[in-house]
Design a protein that fits this description.
The chain has three helices and 18 strands. It is mostly beta strands and 278 residues long. The strands form four sheets. The chain has a five-stranded antiparallel β-sheet, with no helix packed on it. A five-stranded antiparallel β-sheet has the order 8-7-6-9-10, with no helix packed on it. The radius of gyration is 26 Å and the shape is elongated.
Length: 278
Amino acid sequence: MFEIGKMQQLVIRRINASGALLAERENPAVTLLLPGKQIPEGAGPGTELEVFIYRDSEDRLIATTAKPRMLLGEVALLTVVSVTEIGAFLDWGLEKDLFLPFKEQRGKLKPGMKVLAALYLDKSSRLCATMHISDYLKADSPYKQGDKVSGTVYSMKDGMGAFVAVDNRYFGLIPSQELYSRLSVGDVVEARVLRVRPDGKLSLSNRKKAYAQMDEDAAKVMKAIEEYGGVLPFDDKADPETIRLELELSKNAFKRAVGRLLKEGRVEITPHGIRRIK
């Protein structure tokens, strides 16, 4: 049985003007075409090949020795080739671009954009892409608390945070309370595993541990002081939301950074805010 969307070992039964006719060893009577330009040099009847099976532009089952950037049920970061009146098309490493229907898109797409998408079979058994990838992410990652990971942001939700596909395979979430930098869908982020939830999903932070983050936070505060002409118009008693909006820091992180600067003698706290010491 030919498996659409997967790599499969098939045998060349014979070769004609169109290409090689491939079949399973146990079912040699049923064949599909491998175009002539895809036949490896020296291959002939009896040669076993690993091929990917999909439908061509005329909706016929066909094989290719090229391996696409993702197989059925997998997720990958792909480039938008074109956007048409019927949907978008993505470069997935094959001659025929991958169709991304409008209903499977997130946001407005433009050629050249990179999108995280999963490969699925539609009702007509055609391979298509979807940007609604939650159901395709796994919750059995090898990571544990404290590990560093990399992933792609695929959704942002107010009050929840940034949803991240870790390794483009595993479910991760940077909760709102850990989100102190502006992220957008498609951003690749480096993060730290805060905990592995009972269901296997990963809670993440894109901030380093407090002691390692302090230097960067102190530099961010000093930059803000410079931008305000030498006096930041609020101190560490300011409203947490003000601190978050101005500096993309939590109040605790801000207080630690200011404490570092005070200890180093680089700033002082005045009735008007935090002043740079010249």
